Amino acid sequence: MSQETGRRHGVQFVRRRVEGRSRCPSEADRPSIRHPPAWLARPPNPLAPRSPWSGRRIVRARVVRPRRRVKSLAPHRTPFMQPKDTTTNEAFKGFTNTACPFLPCHAGVRGDFNCLFCYCPLIAYRCPGPYQVFTDRHGLHRKDCSACTLPHNGFRGAWNFIQKWLERPVVWDGSAQTRRYRQKPVRPRETAMKEEA
């Protein structure tokens, strides 16, 4: 074993050689270290999961994708659906299909209605509507809500009624309707529109 003494940058050092090789590996003996790109350089997360083999933190690469440019719709291409937060029409939850051959769907319409209310969220829960129970070809009990006038008795009253029953939902067990449905008397359409306005 031999020793070399010297001075580098004002610091005294002693290098010991064992069998003609330095304990401190040279740059050629060191494995090449590839530094990650700049966009992956981030401060270490102490809560990041560690690898069970090496104990190092697992860093997932974040893929940055360019944003797609969305062209604004032309006035003549305005869609039928409008966002509920930006629309000025309170009743514009969807659109009324005037070309539907079954319009109006039910007799006794008292106010403005919307076709979107035909997809009632109370179909899976108990409700006081005058529904009929039928069995489909798979043997499951289904609701027949074709006699219900709730969706067409004004959008505001129908929406408030649905929200009231959704506060405490009870899943429908497939039984027939036992409550007596109290239907409000039908008023003329013009009177109902004036009262809602």
Write the layout of secondary structure elements.
Layout: E1 2-8, E2 11-18, E3 21-22, E4 132-135, E5 141-144, H1 155-166, H2 189-196
Antiparallel strand pairs: 1-2, 2-3, 4-5
Taken in chain order, the helices and strands follow as EEEEEHH
Overall morphology? elongated
Show unreliable segments.
72-79
Helices, by number, come to 2
Strand count, sense and closure of the main sheet? 3 strands, antiparallel
> Structural class given helices, strands, pairing?
alpha+beta
State which percent range the strand residues make up: 5-15%
Count the E strands. 5
The main sheet orders its strands as 1-2-3
Radius of gyration: 37 Å
What average pLDDT do the residues reach? 65
Distance between the termini: 101 Å
What's the helical proportion of residues?
10-25%
Architecture overview:
The protein is α+β, with helices and mostly antiparallel strands and 197 residues long. The protein has a domain at 93-197. The protein has helices at 155-166, 189-196, and strands at 2-8, 11-18, 21-22, 132-135, 141-144. The strands form 2 sheets. A 3-stranded antiparallel sheet has the order 1-2-3, with no helix packed on it. It is elongated, with a radius of gyration of 37 Å.
